[in-house]
């Protein structure tokens, strides 16, 4: 029977990403939401790095599901011209700035980033998505892994798929934004897919 992995997120898009990316490991693992995750107080995110936050969240939520392997990630967008911002504050980029609270969070984040990048020339719009994923059980880290994917920031959104910064994250190799990719392609090349496959390979040697 496959080992159950519980993902500590309320983001349905992330869970979908994880499930698609884990398809090759379906015989070994099954992935689902941490039960009642939407009623559990959020884990504190006090780390200065993606790795610190991912490990901290995995440990925090593992105490809520004793005996289960819990996965938690910290991921975001790093823009070279903005000295790595929004980085670990990617999900709260617009909220931190008090920017456009009238808009959905993703829309506000994208709009703020586009404004920050308004005057950046074409050769200075390099960025990367980065994800660190950690697995913990009973308060101890079992393994962690990282994945990245490089791209560029467009001047306006394109595509209706994905979430987060996907509509403005352009992949020159595919000549599409992350939001324009089909799910199979996206999960093959995404930062989250790379991190999950690396983590599952590590866990297979331990379970």
Features:
Maf protein; alpha/beta; 7-stranded mixed β-sheet; 6 helices; globular; 29% helix; 207 residues
Question: Please, could you describe this protein's structure?
Answer:
The protein is an alpha/beta fold. It has six helices and seven strands. Strand 6 and strand 7 (176-177) form a beta hairpin. It has a single domain (3-204), classed as Maf protein (Alpha-Beta Complex). The mean pLDDT is 92. The chain has a seven-stranded mixed beta sheet with strand order 2-1-3-4-5-6-7.
Indicate the topology.
Layout lengths: L2 E5 L4 H10 L7 E5 L16 H13 L6 E11 L13 H5 L7 H12 L9 E12 L2 E14 L15 E3 L4 E2 L5 H7 L1 H14 L3
Parallel strand pairs: 1-2, 1-3
Antiparallel strand pairs: 3-4, 4-5, 5-6, 6-7
Helix pairs in contact: 1-5, 1-6, 5-6
Q: What does the radius of gyration come to?
A: 17 Å
- Second rung of CATH, namely the architecture: Alpha-Beta Complex
**Structural domain count:** 1
Name the shape in a single word. globular
Please state the average pLDDT score.
Answer: 92
Number of helical segments with 4 or more residues: 6
């Amino acid at each position: 029977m496959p080992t159950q992995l519980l993902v500590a997120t309320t983001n349905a898009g992330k869970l979908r990403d994880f499930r698609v990316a884990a398809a090759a490991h379906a015989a070994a693992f099954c992935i689902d939401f941490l039960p009642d995750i939407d009623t559990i107080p959020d884990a504190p995110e006090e780390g200065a790095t993606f790795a610190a936050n991912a490990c901290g969240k995995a440990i925090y939520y593992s105490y809520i599901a004793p005996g289960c392997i819990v996965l938690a990630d910290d991921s975001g967008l790093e823009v070279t011209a903005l000295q790595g911002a929004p980085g670990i504050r990617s999900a709260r980029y617009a909220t931190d700035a008090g920017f456009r609270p009238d808009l959905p969070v993703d829309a506000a984040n994208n709009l703020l980033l586009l404004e920050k990048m308004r005057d950046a020339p074409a050769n200075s719009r390099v960025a990367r998505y980065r994800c660190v994923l950690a697995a913990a059980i009973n308060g101890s880290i079992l393994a962690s892994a990282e994945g990245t994917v490089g791209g560029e920031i467009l001047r306006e959104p394109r595509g209706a798929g994905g979430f987060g910064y996907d509509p403005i994250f352009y992949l020159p190799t595919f000549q599409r934004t992350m939001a324009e990719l089909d799910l199979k392609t996206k999960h093959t090349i995404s930062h989250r897919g790379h991190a999950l496959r690396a983590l599952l390979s590590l866990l297979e040697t331990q379970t």
